[in-house]
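Researcher: Structure prediction, please.
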Amino acid sequence: MGILGYTLAKIKLLLTDPEFVFERIKNEGYMEPLFYFLFLFLIFSVLTLPATLINDLLLGTALQGMEKLFFFVLIPFGILTGLLIAIAIAFGFAGIVHVFVSLYDGKAEFLNTFKAVIYGFTPSFTIGIVIVYLAFIPVLGILFLIPFIYNMVLMIIGLRSLNNTTTGKAALSIIIPVLILAALFLLSVIAIIIKTGLF
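Model: Predicted structure follows.
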């Protein structure tokens, strides 16, 4: 089985039997999960590109007056920029999660937390592809909660398996940072609304 076949098999098993995968990636370093993340991000970006372009056309923004050459240069640049931002977010979130993991287990390793977070994003980059297109129907936009919750479940399973902790401690290590980040985001939105005088 080649790298592509192995990666596709890993995606399938993470969605159907995550414990099997997490038990077998304990010896992985940083490169394997980063390659996996890169692969998923590129697939997601390419397969959702038509939805992005359609959305831009509907909003009357990106394609107006754009030269074809510039357009085809912009796409890979946008994907690369998005990838770098996504990796930074993944590292940042893994760092926050690891703070809470360490509170429960001082021997926990950041690499294991990082792998749990990276592989935990699998639903967003797979199921999320379908959600992007369904979101054209406004009422179906709420379906984004499916991959989001699925992400959290996989991360909890990964933390429990890779850091040898309990399900409860792993769940708290994921849920608390998510709630904190959600609260900060909400406060930021409220602050912007108040500052712009919209409220």
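Model: Residues 68-104 form the longest helix (37 residues).
Researcher: Thanks, that helps.
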